Amino acid sequence: MVSEQTIHGTILYGPELELIEGYMVIRDGIITEVAGERTDSKNIIAPCFVNAHTHIGDSVIKDPVLGKCVDHYVERDLGSLVQPPHGLKHRVLEATPRDELMEGMRRSVTDMIQTGTCAFADFREGGIEGILALKEALQGFEIECRILGRPKRINAGYDELCSEVERILMDADGLGMSGANDMDMHILGTIGDIAKSKQKILAIHAGEDCRGDIEKALSLDPDILIHLTKADRNDLKKVADVGIPAVVCPRSNFITGAGMAPVRDMLNSGIDVAVGTDNVMLNSVNMFSEMEFLSKIFGLEDRQVFIMCTLMGAAILGLDKTGAIIERNRAKVMILNGNSCNLAGIKNPINSIVRRGRPDDILSVII
Predict the structure, then answer these.
(1) From CA 232, how far away is CA 105, in angstroms rounded?
(2) Edge-to-edge strand list for the sheet holding 278-279
(3) Integer Cα distance of 81 and 91 in angstroms
(4) Neighbour-count burial for 226-245, b at 16+ CB within 10 Å, e otherwise
């Protein structure tokens, strides 16, 4: 049976987010028509978020001690929190029963959908077992996920490690590696080549805690770089010259003390930049919070911020016909109440959604 619905309101249309007062028609999940028409509806119809970097296995630890308190100030150590194989999160994941891990991931997926996210990319720890656990947790959800696996036995012998990577890539969309300083470069290069030979994504953290691993990461010819918090302008020029996109995680870098990614310089260098919420143990999966942070702390232009959190994430992750509200694309939209107590009286929907939008402004999510 054919399913069709018509939605009225102010539509953020196309790759430039043109404001159209009117209606859109969705037929069997595909946008078939967008047209201008006078309407009394205060609803705002916007593309859904794409959370381009998460670790939702961390959903089982949401309030970790971030460091030691010295003179009323918390000294934070990124490595002790997340670095494999002995960082806090890896110890917790290793000790967590599978059913508890699954329930935590399901709740985070539900939270993403309820807060307007239609797709995400997850760096999945735990080898093949971790990947299969995430796949099971995703059952029954419409949300899209790029699963980027990681070998569990990173210190195993060469042949054993390569065999594990081959197995991972049978079930994952690619590899999501910790960083070029965390493994032998020869081995890292080999498993990166395996991913490329199978036409799978190779993504890697780089320049999060120091810039010393950026050159190494670039030598692997990855598809996506994560963080680049410590990158200088020379680093960014090299990234731009080879056309590798980046994903930034502003709230995560702030709370770990890694610093503030040079997002403005990234954009000015011509790098495609998307946004992720990173570890659930550090931040919620709420992309509204990332937008407000980027707008108010980084001082970025609001339209650019919204594009980074929606359309650019879809493009970087290769999500076919997902992203912009445009005819023949899949309908992945959130309908916001422009007459909510928070949004009533706004003059510019894009600026207002970025600076002050909240999950409770959402009336419904179509994915």
Answers:
(1) 35
(2) 273-275, 246-248, 224-227, 201-206, 174-177, 144-149, 117-124, 49-55, 278-279
(3) 10
(4) bbbbbbeeebbeebbeeebb
Show the domains of the chain with their CATH numbers: 4-48+323-366 (2.30.40.10), 49-316 (3.20.20.140)
Radius of gyration over every alpha carbon of the chain, rounded to an integer in angstroms? 20
Question: Which pair of tokens denotes residue 305?
Answer: 């911020």
Instruction: Check if the beta carbon of residue 304 is closer than 8 Å to that of residue 271.
Output: no
DSSP type of residue 56: G
324 burial (CB, 10 Å; 0-12 / 13-18 / 19+) is buried
Give dist(CA 334, CA 132) in Å, integer: 29
pLDDT of residue 332: 98
Distance, CA of 40 to CA of 250 (rounded, Å): 37
Question: What is the rounded distance in angstroms from the CA atom of residue 110 to the CA atom of residue 352?
Answer: 25
- Residue-level pLDDT at 156: 75
Q: What is the largest CA-CA distance in the chain?
A: 67
Question: Residue 122, exposed/middle/buried by CB under 10 A (0-12, 13-18, 19+)?
Answer: buried
Label residue 13 exposed, middle or buried (CB < 10 Å: 0-12, 13-18, 19+): buried
Grouped pLDDT means (10 residues each) for the chain, 367 residues: 92 97 97 97 98 94 69 59 71 83 95 98 94 96 97 82 95 96 92 96 96 97 98 98 98 92 97 97 96 96 98 97 96 98 97 98 97
Any alpha helices (H) in the chain, and if so which ranges? 78-82, 88-95, 98-114, 127-137, 158-171, 185-197, 214-219, 233-242, 250-256, 263-269, 287-296, 302-309, 311-316, 349-356
Q: Say how far apart CA 121 and CA 103 lie, in whole Å.
A: 19
Measured CA to CA, the distance from residue 279 to residue 48 in angstroms comes to 20
Task: Check residue 154 and give its pLDDT.
Answer: 73
